[in-house]
Amino acid sequence: MATKDYIIAPSILSADFSRLGEEVNSVIEAGADWVHFDVMDNHYVPNLTIGPMVCQSLREYGITAPIDVHLMVEPVDELIKSFVKADATYITFHPEASEDVDRSISLIKDGGCKAGLVLNPDISIDVLDGYLDKLDMILLMSVFPGFGGQEFIDSVLEKVNKIRSIIDDKNLNTRLEIDGGIKLDNIKEVADAGADTFVSGSAIFNQPDYFQIIQEMRDSLET
Ligand code: DX5
Ligand code: ZN
Predict the structure, then answer these.
(1) Using only C-alpha atoms, what is the Rg of the chain?
(2) Which residues neighbour ligand 2 (ion) by CB within 5 Å?
(3) How far apart are alpha carbons 125 and 213 in whole angstroms?
(4) CA-nearest residue, atom 9 of ligand 1
(5) Which atom of ligand 1 sits closest to the CA of residue 47?
(6) Ligand 1 contact, 183 CB (< 6 A)
(7) Could you tell me if the CB of 52 is within 6 A of ligand 1?
(8) CA of 104 to the centre of ligand 1 (A)
(9) Is pTM beyond 0.90 here?
(10) 188 vs 64: CA distance, rounded Å
(11) Ligand positioned closest to the Cα atom of 147
(12) How far apart are CA 133 and CA 128, in angstroms?
C-alpha cells in the first residue's frame, strides 16, 4: 500500500483536556490525518469521557480535520443523532450495543457521516456478516476498550489478516482501522497484517514532540 493511503489518527483520550483545542491543532499541524474521539459512557465501558458538545466545540474552534468518533456507549442511536449534528466525520459503534445494527448504520449514513462497526478482541468477525457492503470502516480493537495506555493484544493480528483478505477479495473500499496499544514498535507489523488506519493515543500524546513521533511512525510504515 502506498504510504499516503495510511491514516494516523491520534486518540485525544491521552491529550491534555484542559487545552483540547490547542492539542488537536498541534497533532494535526504535526502531520496527523484524523482525530480519534473516544466516547465512553460509564455503562458500556467503565470510564466516562466526552460527548457531542465537545465535538461541536472543536469544530467551532476551527478543527476541519476528519473527526473519527468511536462510540463506546449503550444504547447508540440517540448519540449517533447528536454526533451527526455535531459534525462528526466517521461514527463507529459496537454492534452488541445497538438494538438494531442496520438502523444505527442508516442513521449515520443518512446523516451524511461515514459508518463503521467496532469489534472487541473477543468478538468473532462473523458478526460482520450482512453488513460488510454498508460499512465505510471496520475498527478492530487490539485492547479491551475503556482506557488508554494498554498493551496491544497480539492475537488480534490474525483477525486483521482475515478481514484484509475479505475486503480485498470483495474489492471493497472499506478502511481497516486498529485501536489500542499502537506505537512506533508495532505499527509496521500491524500494517503488514493489513490495517490501513492507526489509532494511537498514549504513544503520541505522551511524547514531547508530536511531529517527530508521527514522522517516525510514517517512516516505519514506509520501510
Ligand atoms: C480504548 C480507546 C482507544 C485508546 C487508545 O478504549 O478506544 O482509542 O484511547 O489509546 P492507546 O493508543 O494509548 O492504547
Ligand atoms: Zn478508540
Answers:
(1) 16
(2) 38, 70, 179
(3) 32
(4) 148
(5) 6
(6) no
(7) no
(8) 23
(9) yes
(10) 28
(11) 1
(12) 10
Instruction: Give 122: exposed, middle or buried? Use CB within 10 Å, 0-12, 13-18, 19+.
Output: exposed
Looking at 161-217, which runs of residues are DSSP E strands? 175-179, 197-200
Cell of residue 208, nine digits: 514531547
| Closest C-alpha among 203, 193, 204, 199 to residue 1 | 193
Q: Considering every ligand atom, which ligand is closest to the CA of 14?
A: 1
Q: 188-219 as b/e, with b when 16 or more CB fall inside 10 Å?
A: eebbebbbbbbbbbbbbbeeeebeebbeebee
pLDDT 10s per residue in the chain (223 long)? 554 599 999 999 999 999 999 999 999 999 999 999 999 999 999 999 999 999 999 999 999 999 999 999 999 999 999 999 999 999 999 999 999 999 999 999 999 999 999 999 999 999 999 999 999 999 999 999 999 999 999 999 999 999 999 999 999 999 999 999 999 999 999 999 999 999 999 999 999 999 999 999 999 999 9
Kindly give the interhelix angle for 101-110 and 77-85, rounded to the nearest 10 degrees: 10
Which residues, 6+ apart, have CB-to-CB distance to 125 below 8 Å? Answer: 119, 159, 162, 163, 166
pLDDT score, position 4? 52
